[in-house]
């Protein structure tokens, strides 16, 4: 009965069919991977009818890329970089991360990314800081399980 349904379907960009999608068209909900793909897509976009928006400024954003929402990420099995909640909880148990977070400069960098209107630009700027790169690398090692591999190899 379940054999005709794949257990886990990996999505690819609806425009180039090469990369995993990072964005969703705000008009028709088609998924795409880059600004280039969005520009190609917008010429043939067929908007999906939806109720009138309660936010009048949303018309200005109709032509811009809409990142996947938190709800999208939490409820989709086909997102490649999705980290299970159990792995995320390991971040709070890392003494190395806790030590890094004692640094006021790192805390300020994290606040600036969190407060930024353009998260992508703020992340790009923060990634120029060696301390932030060290923090990001450490987070990745924790959620990817490299902590366990390192401690078990000794």
UniProtKB/TrEMBL annotation:
SUPFAM superfamilies: HIT/MYND zinc finger-like. GO terms for biological process: box C/D snoRNP assembly; maturation of LSU-rRNA from tricistronic rRNA transcript (SSU-rRNA, 5.8S rRNA, LSU-rRNA); snoRNA localization. It comes from the Eukaryota. GO terms for cellular component: cytoplasm; nucleus; pre-snoRNP complex. Residues 48-68 are annotated as: Disordered. PROSITE patterns: ZF_HIT (PS51083). Keywords: Cytoplasm, Metal-binding, Nucleus, Phosphoprotein, Zinc, Zinc-finger. The keyword Metal-binding applies. It is found in: Cytoplasm; Nucleus. Coiled coil: none annotated. GO terms for molecular function: zinc ion binding. InterPro entries: BCD1, Znf_HIT, ZNHIT3_C. Pfam families: zf-HIT, ZNHIT3_C. Residues 13-45 form the HIT-type domain. Thyroid receptor interacting proteins (TRIPs) specifically interact with the ligand binding domain of the thyroid receptor (TR). Requires the presence of thyroid hormone for its interaction. Interacts with NUFIP1. Interacts (via HIT-type zinc finger) with the RUVBL1/RUVBL2 complex in the presence of ADP. This is Zinc finger HIT domain-containing protein 3.
